[in-house]
Amino acid sequence: MKKLFKYSLIACLGLSMAACTDLEEDLIGDITEDIVVEGINIDGPGSGDGALTALYAELRNAGTANHGGYYSIQEITTDEMFIGAKGGDWFDGGDLIRLHQHTYTPNHPFINGTWVQTYNAIATANDNLGSGNLSEAETAQARAVRAYFYWRLLDSYGRVKLVTETNEDPPQASRQEVFEFVESELLTALGIAEVSESMDLSNSPLADGGSAYSMNRYGAMGILAKLYLNAEVYTGMPMYDKAEIAASYIIDSGQYVLCGDGCSVPNLGKRPRVDSDPETLEGYAAVFAPNNEGNPEHIFSVRYDEATGPNMNFSQMNLHYSSQFTWNFQEQPWNGYATLEEFYNSYEDGDARKENNFIVGPQLDFSGSALLDYAADDDDIQLNYTPEINELAPNSLREAGARPAKFSYKQFGRSNMDNDFPIVRLGEVYLVRAEAVARQAGNWSAAEADVNVLRARAGVAEYNGNLTEEEFLAERGREMFQETARRTDLIRFGKYNGEWWEKPSSEPFVNIFPIPQEQINAGGGLTQNPGY
Amino acid sequence: MKLNINSMTRGGLLVLALLLCNFTFAQRTITGTVTDAETGEPLIGANILVVGSSTGTITDFDGAYSLNVSENAKELEFSYTGYSSQRVEIGSQTKIDVTLSAGQQLEEVVVVGYGSQKEKEITSAVTSVSAEDFNQGPITDPSQLLQGKVAGLQVYNRGGDPNGQSVIRLRGISTVGANTEPLVVVDGIIGASLDNVDPNDIENVTVLKDGSAAAIYGSRGSSGVILVTTRSGSQSKGVEFSYNGQTAASTAFNSVPVMSADEFVAAGGTDLGSETNWIDEVTRVGISNVHSLSASGGSGNTTYRISGNYRNVDGILKNSGFEQFNGRVNLSTKAFNDKVSIDFNSSFTNRNSDFGFNEALRYGVLYNPTAPVLGADAPFPFASEQYGGFFETLGLFDSFNPVSIIEQNRNQGQRTEVTYGARVGYDITPNLELAARVANQKTTVANEEYYPTTSLFRGNATSPTRKGLAQFYDEITSFQLFEGYLTYVADVGSRSNLRVTGGYSYQQNNFESKFLSLGDFPDNSLDFGNLIQTSQDLQNAGFIQANSAVSPDEKIIAFFARANMTIDDAIFLNASVRREGSTKLGADNRWGIFPALGVGVDVNRYLDINNVDLLKVRVGYGVTGALPGPNGLSQPIRQVVNGDDGSVSTELIRAANPDLKWEEKGELNLGVEFTMGRFNATLDLYDRNIQDFILERTVDVAVFGTDRRFENAGLLTTQGAELTLGYDVVRKDNMIWNTGLILSTYKTTLEEYVVPEEQRANLGAPGQNGTNMVVIREGEEIGQIWGPVYAGVGEDGAPLLEDINGDGQVIGDQGNALNPEADFTTLGNGIPDLEFGWTNQLSFGDWSVNAFFRGALGHSLVNTFRAFYEPRISSQTSYNFVNTELAEPGLTSAQFSSLYVEEADFFKLDNLTISRRFSFEKGSAIRGLTVSLTGQNLFVLTNYTGTDPEPSLVDYGSSDNGGVVDFSNPDVLSPGIDRRYSYFASRTFTLGVNLNF
User: Fold this and answer.
1) Cα Rg, chain A, nearest whole Å
2) B797 to chain A: which residues are within 8 Å by CB?
3) Do B394 and A23 touch (CB under 8 A)?
4) What is the pLDDT of residues B624-673, one digit of tens each?
5) What's the domain count of chain A?
6) Which among B395, B643, B702 has CB closest to A119?
7) Whole-angstrom distance, CA of residue B454 vs CA of residue B21
8) What share of chain A in percent tops pLDDT 70?
9) What residues of chain A lie within 8 A of the CB of B578, using their CB?
């Protein structure tokens, strides 16, 4: 064989050159073309779309619930969350303080990360849509999911390129154009020309309900409702009437119900020897629990799974290192994100959401003994999360700040959590309608009916003619904590540039993030947003 | 270990015996003197050899010699470096006096690729180093033989990790995205593994430094070429044996200064009641043994050499080291009236490595000095059994008991390499030779890690459910090489000649790898790394990691030609061209052309300056390429995404670039060679331009569907100078002293790049992410460390930083480093301004001393240990504090600044060897014996407070909390970062014996 090899080479050296100059590269250890394997249809219409598997996975990859991307820039720029610099730990080049104090620049790595992750998701949608393999229903889903990602870009960056095909390079669109694109894509997917009282969705290729993991009519309508609620910010033109109609369509469909009394799941975080840990999680807590899949309030959700659906890392991001021994986590937490004291105190005692959304006080380990922090920087060695916080930097105490726990933790949890993350849920749809109605009426008490639905579930007193704009924003904050809504809300209410703890007032231009410098440098002709 | 001590003792006794005894065996004795023909001064150390044998001696301090020769010896050869040698018939003489003439250059022949050339005829920057000039002591990797010996060649093996790979650079970086290490050619086999060559088998190493020399290797020549020639047999009577043995002891040269237990408690550290010196706990005296035995000889037309080499090296870190066996057979023969010549080389290496855990040194530095080693000694109840009996500071980030790391875990590998090649030459006419070379190499790597259920470090011992981890990595790389070429030598007069070579080269490379990681083992009763079927991960989704990679039919195909011409024995012309293609590039750009031209003139032949023996001026220009690392650069790459319902789809992770083309380096080299009596000097000046370098860069994610793509991304230029000086300081009386100095300097500028400026080299966790310490800018020198200037301690314990731009506000957080209003400046450069090596060889009688000094000036290092652990952070009181003379005790928060950037100029006595040579009379069973004692790293003069001031030319990124460093992907644009995972430098003493019989 070897001789043959040798002789054939000698032969071709003297004779034909074709064979011994062949340099075709045929990759056998890499994938260069798309592969689609259809799944088994188990959850009703919309599930089992092999062609869209990668696209739905992009919801997890796009920084929805991990550190360094979309979640981070939506949360720690607001008055509900921060990351303190603990004597050098979590200083991270000042990047986190800059988000908190609204002094971010075009070189901020998280702002670039968000851009890249979001466009990667859009590219996967374009790739699927351009493949020619999608059914009409799959095409509608892909366009609606892509519209959702463009909504993130619209909300965060304003002026972006509206790319709809791979290798297409359109000019940077205005914020108005991006708004119109998102609206028209969602309307197309819904099979309607506009949102109105008389709209008829019977021609929509999207499913009429079904799994929250697939984009159905109510998911698309919910995103549209949120788009219209913020239309005045995006375009200067209020569209609260359409927001109300879209929200009402979902509520009135009867497909979804609030998870209230009797809506419960087993508490996977329970420590057998700690009596104060409940056996079950009920109502509000069940909506966000590790075993929240199929919750009746979920309309469109991101499927997270510890083994097959990675990238929700809240346990590591929020908890102190030692808290590993409360939940027997596989991986050590990082002691990063915590809640501002004022925000924590905006909840009244007895509010079920306060109970669920935060971890405060002295901590116990799995067996119920005191949880120790060998590197405590106060005199008490027991880990004790305090709502009060000494300072943002440079020596923020390691135990300071109530810890976010809305998406609750389970025993033996892995670094990738199991909790599904709702992008559209019925609770928020009530808030959208409440606000849309109040803004149209010019009267915040018009919002009370819908808000009181949520107040009742939380076990706190209903409003009765006393709801104000400020109180509505606070109430919305309490309900929507940790769901990446706060920045958009503060901007819509004109509060984003105000002062809060360790944060001076900021200029209005920061309401739109800068176009990342790395993307401008990439040479596609992007121009910077004003002010940066 | 028992065996090692025994063999060391035995070696010592043998040495003693030889020192005490004096062997003399008389036969016919010839005496005489050797003197300089012009001055009449005696030549000390001149070689006298009986022609056709290996019997010989050297002259003493008076130039006198005495040699016992056999009755049938016919001729003596007298030779001396720098003098022309002379043969004298013995006849019936018993006294032979000889005068040798200096100044006539020895016609030394240098291997240059697809042939060899007389040294004088070379028109490019080529340096040849022979075995006697190699660095001594136990060498773990052959490139260390050359450290400091070749001007412009940088060889740095930071720290003393016996399994660490040296970083090798010729004239700085030659590419950004591709391989920056020189091409290695062993006995004509392109791409042969240097790891498969034992240092003891190397006869000579030639380094092709500039573009005009390397262009004959085309697309792989940009980073320079190292040509290794292994020893071969010689015609002699019977078999000659040679034994080389070394026993060495290494100790940690220094450590990162940290607090003692008392200092730590006084500084507010958490007192856990014990006193432990963690570095002492994890380091040791590393004992190494080397044994090499070779047999060589020849008869008729056939010569051979067979060698076996055994190396057993223990590092200073406990449980780190390797054991290696290497065997080599070199065979040459001629047939058919000497018209056909056959050369065969084969080599085999098997190396079993204990990679150990460098992390033990890192955590040894920062672990609480009052913590006990064992859990039983904890000041509070501690579940020792869960952690294998060891204490652990649970709940701390990035903190692991160093002793537990090395005692409980296993990190091993086995590498097997086989290389063989044959060259067949056929003289078609006396002036025309057809040659063919076939070669094959296969390297198999099998690495294995095992972390038992009781190891906190990577073994997850805190988990009640999933403990223990086993990882396996297997890799097979191989290539087949075929080359055929014709060489024609023309007779064009007595003082001129012309030689033309042309041929074809075909090489196919293959690669495959597999990785498997799984855990959750039953308990710690067995080594379940050998019983992976017990892993409970087999019942749990998502924990097992497995992947594989296979290369396509990766080929490099080339046609090449070269012409060498000499006119009037003083004007030399060399021209070559290689047209080469690779599967790795875009479909339309697979072929590249790499030409070279060189001219040299022996000016002194026409000027005839008094006392000047040589004055040669040469200039060469050549174009070379750099072959990018991975396959599929021009193609789109996708990855699989799995759904929970069994569905599968893919997403794009790298965009295609069908236009991707060769990166090219054009290099102009001007050289002057000068010899005058005992003094010689070579000066090389060069200017290189690397254009279209291939880089995986950020592209517009909106357009390409992913933000990564390989592109031809910029232009890099390097200007440099290299000076080599040699002088025979003393050459009379009873002493010889030769000294040599090499100096090199270069500057690399990034002329064009994909972005105007960019930050690199993140400092890392805890708390210093978003802290990129290196900046690169278009039009500026590479390697700049960029940060704020430290100005003192503020009231809150945070560092005060200088208001550099004087605008009244200080912006010094690293995330703002590219903000034009921020207060940043260049804090140093990771690349030295000047590197030098200084050799000294002294001989007196049978004794000789080699002293080799080495140094570098002008480079800085970021001392990352200090950057993280020197500030007295209140929440870090359960870690030890780094405590150098630069410590600022008032500082309580860590933030990167000039405080942690240190100038790392150094001057060291790298190698000192004292040896005694014993002569034996003809007929003795022993032909020669040399005993030597070598010390490495004997002293270092530096102000750097870290463990090793040697330049760090590449960066491998940060790692934390037991994470694994990826050594496969070095960042060549981020020099100057001394990371926390460095092995500590060591000092080594070696006793060596060389016995010929």
Assistant:
1) 25
2) 87, 394-395
3) no
4) 998 777 888 889 999 888 877 778 888 889 999 988 888 999 999 999 99
5) 1
6) B702
7) 58
8) 94
9) none
pLDDT digits (tens, 9 = 90+) for B470-488: 999 999 999 999 999 999 9
B236 pLDDT band (50/70/90 cuts)? low
Is A522 within 8 Å of B756 when comparing Cβ atoms? no
CATH code of the domain containing A99:
1.25.40.390
**Long-range own/partner contacts, residues B913-918 (CB < 8 A, 24 or more apart):** B913/B136, B913/B137, B913/B849, B913/B850, B913/B851, B914/B847, B914/B848, B914/B849, B915/B847, B915/B848, B915/B849, B915/B850, B915/B992, B916/B19, B916/B846, B916/B847, B917/B846, B917/B847, B917/B848, B918/B18, B918/B23, B918/B846
The residue in chain A having the minimum alpha-carbon distance to the alpha carbon of residue B460 is A330
- Amino acid at residue number A501: W
- B88-116: average pLDDT: 77
Query: Using one digit for the tens of pLDDT, what is the confidence trace for B313-336?
Result: 999 999 999 999 999 999 999 888
> Average pLDDT over chain B, rounded to whole?
88
In the predicted model, what is the mean pLDDT of residues B41-64? 78
ipTM given for this complex:
0.84
Instruction: For residue range B882-928, list pLDDT tens digits in order.
Output: 999 999 989 988 899 999 999 999 999 999 999 999 988 877 888 88
Tokens of A513: 């993030």
Domains of chain B: 2-100 (2.60.40.1120), 109-236 (2.170.130.10), 240-760+831-991 (2.40.170.20)
Report if residue A438 sits inside a domain.
yes
Mutate to test the interface with B, among A102, A332, A366, A528 (most CBs of B within 10 A): A332
Closest residue in B to A169 (Cα) is B703
Mutate one of B585, B875, B882, B961 to test the A interface: name it (highest A CB count within 10 A).
B875
A4 contacts chain B (CB < 8 A): no
Q: Domain range spanning residue A64?
A: 51-256+423-521
Instruction: Search chain B and give the residue with CA nearest A119.
Output: B702
**Residue A230 dihedral angles phi and psi, to the nearest 5°:** -100, 10
Q: Which of B464, B644, B816 sits opposite A94 (nearest CB)?
A: B816
- Encoded tokens for B481: 């090489």
- Which ranges constitute the DSSP H helices of B150-233? 211-214
pTM of the predicted protein model: 0.85
Is A135 touching B (CB cutoff 8 A)?
A: no
A502 within domain boundaries = yes
